[in-house]
Amino acid sequence: MKTDTHALQPAPDAHGHGEHHAGGSRESYLIGFGLSVILTAIPFWLVMSGVLGDKQLTGLAITVLAAIQIVVHMVYFLHMNTRSEGGWTMMALIFTIIMVVIGLAGSEWVMHHLNVNMMPGHEMSGMK
Amino acid sequence: MTLAVVPPQNSEPVFYVVDEHEHPEGASTMLGFWIYLMSDCLIFAMLFATFGVLGGNYAAGPAPKDLFDLPLVAVNTSMLLLSSITYGFAMLAMEKSRVGAMQAWLVITGLFGLAFISIELFEFAHMIHEGATPQRSAFLSSFFTLVGTHGLHVTFGLVWLVTLMVQVARYGLIEANRRRLTCLSMFWHFLDVVWIGVFTFVYLMGMLR
Q1: Chain A neighbours among B 169-198 (CB < 8 Å)?
Q2: Is residue A16 scored above 50 in pLDDT?
Q3: Is some CB atom of chain A closer than 8 A to the CB atom of B70?
C-alpha cells in the first residue's frame, strides 16, 4: 500500500476561512448616511413641532422610523448579510433579537401590570 | 496528533490527520467580535428595559421636559452619525492601502467622537448642576446608567482609535492592524445603532411623556 501524502494536508480551500469582511463601497456608505440623516431628522421634527398632534401616534411613528434606521445601519454600515461567516453572524443576530424582544417586552409587560395593580385606590376587593 | 493505522499486511502504515486543520491567524476574529457585540447588545437591552420600567418614576423631581434640550441632542446625534460615515471612509482608504488618507479620516472620526462625548458631559454637568443627579429619582438613575454606559463605550472606542492610529503609524497596514481596524469599525457603527435607540426612546419619547 502506498503512503497517501495527501491525507496529511487539508484540502485546499475546503472552508471559507480567511475570507475578508465584505466592505462597502463609497456609494453604499453615502446612501446609508443619507438615509440615516433623513431617518434622524424626521423623528426630531415630529417631536419638536408636534405636527401629528397625537402623542401616541407620534410615539409609534418615531418607533417605526428608529427600527428602519437600525436596519439601514446594519445593512450599509455593518454590512450585515446572510452570507458572511457562513451565515453565523446572522444566526447570532437573530438569537440576540429574540433575547432582546423577550427582555424588553417581558419587562414592560410584567412591570406595567405590577404598577397597575399596586396603584393607590385599586383595592384588592375591587379587583376581579 | 497523527494516528498510525497498522495494516494487516507488512506494508507501510497509512497516516491520517485527526486534529482540526490549521486556521489562518485571525480567521475567526470577526465572528468572535460580532458575538461580543451581540452580548454587548444584551447589556444595552437590559438597560433599556430598566429605563423603560423606571423612566416614568420622577419621585416629584424633574421630568424629561424640564431637563432635555432637543436641539442639543440633535447636534449630538449628528456628531455620532458624522463620525460613523468618516470611519466608513477610513475603511475605504484602508482597503486601497492609502495610509495617509486613512489616518486623516480616523483623526476626523476621533474629533467627532470627542465632540459627542464633550456635549454629553456638558449635558450631564448641566443636569447635575440643576439638582438632577442620579440619586434624585429612579428615572434619573436609569437615565444616567443607560446614557452613561453608552458614553463610556464611546470613550473606550476613542482610546482604542488612538491606540490603533499609533499602531498603524509604527507598523503600517499589516494584516493584524487591518483586522483590528475592522473590529473597531464594527464597534463604532454598533455604538451608533445603540444611540438610535437612546435618542428615540430616551430623549424623544421622554419629551412625549
Answers
A1: 182, 186, 189-190, 192-193, 196-197
A2: no
A3: yes
